[in-house]
Amino acid sequence: MTLQTTAYSDLLNSTPEQVRAAIRRGSYTGHTAGLATGKLQCNLAILPERYALDFLRFCQRNPKPCPVVGVSDSGDANLPTLGRDIDIRSDVSKYRVFRDGVFAEEIDDITELWTHDLVTVALGCSFTFENALLRNDIPVRHIETGRNVPMFRSNIDLMPAGPFAGKMVVTMRPIPESQIDQAREISARYPHAHGAPIGVGDPASIGISDLSQPDWGDAVEIKAGEVPVYWACGVTPQNVLLDAKLPLCITHSPGHMLIADVAEDAETTILPLQ
After folding, report:
1. 240 vs 217, which has greater pLDDT?
2. Where are the beta strands (DSSP E) in 108-208?
3. What is the share, in percent, of the chain residues with pLDDT greater than 70?
4. What is the structure's pLDDT at 146?
5. Structure confidence by residue, pLDDT tens digits, 193-205
6. How many CB atoms lie within 10 A of CB 14?
7. Which of 25, 62, 138, 139 is the most exposed place for a label (fewest CB within 10 A)?
């Protein structure tokens, strides 16, 4: 029997549970931007237990690019602090699998790869503060133009832990000069979503040579009266994981996030659902 597909438009007003159910049964494999409005979406890092403590130390030492919002027990595919019925093996619409630091495959279910020693670390996502900026009439250019946010390697050193080290990756959003303070204040409310900017203005000050040539994502126009503003980026931990050349590491594919049941604007530590 052919599985009936679910369209993105069919999920726009769905709950997190409904979106995850469509993903779990394989009827939806698209991106998650704009789905389950108001709920937290998470970046993922799934790695063997023997590396997990060092990775969590790394995240704790570098909270701007690596804001931890959930951690599983070893070998447990559930994330009870983020949702009542999450199965991390099947509830993300697309995964990337890396072996020894090299991309191996992109798949929509990792059940066959799951082992008793894997640990899932969920990290906050910039969708949260971008939604807050838009609600306050602060433009977000890549969303306006239907592009991916521009991402750049910076010269900002990260605090190492075990095999994990490197430089911070940053995102850039052009912000009207008159709204920079407001954008800083709004994003600072969301430390689990990268928090306040790490820089404003001259890209050379953080090691970026050309804003028209992002390392990932798409270049965006900086209009008259706008200033480039830089935030820590969730690509940072993925790069660090790959550089560590772990025998196995699984992440979400860009734009294909885990949708949690908790509110995206939770300003305190995520607590277990009642």
Report:
1. 240
2. 118-123, 151-157, 167-176, 199-200
3. 96
4. 79
5. 899 999 999 999 9
6. 18
7. 25
Q: Which of 79-83, 236-240, 243-247 has the lowest average pLDDT?
A: 236-240
Beta-carbon neighbour count of residue 177 at 10 Å?
12
Beta-sheet pairing, 199-200 with 249-252: unpaired
Amino acid at 132: A
For residue 28, give every residue at least 6 positions away whose Cβ sits within 8 Å of its Cβ, in sequence order, or none.
5, 6, 8, 11, 19, 22, 93
Within 10 A of 168 (CB to CB), how many other CB atoms are there? 25
The angle at the Cα of 251, spanning 98 to 191, to the nearest 5 degrees, equals 140
How many whole angstroms separate alpha carbon 47 and alpha carbon 45?
Answer: 6
* Contact (Cβ atoms closer than 8 angstroms) between residue 193 and residue 67: yes
Count Cα atoms within 13 angstroms, Cβ side, for 70: 31
- Show the domains of the chain with their CATH numbers: 8-125+244-263 (3.40.1640.10), 127-236 (3.30.2040.10)
Tokens linked to 70: 């959930």
User: 149 with 219: CB under 8 angstroms?
Assistant: no
- What are 24-43's pLDDT values in tens digits? 999 999 888 778 888 999 99
Whether the predicted pLDDT of 76 surpasses 80: yes
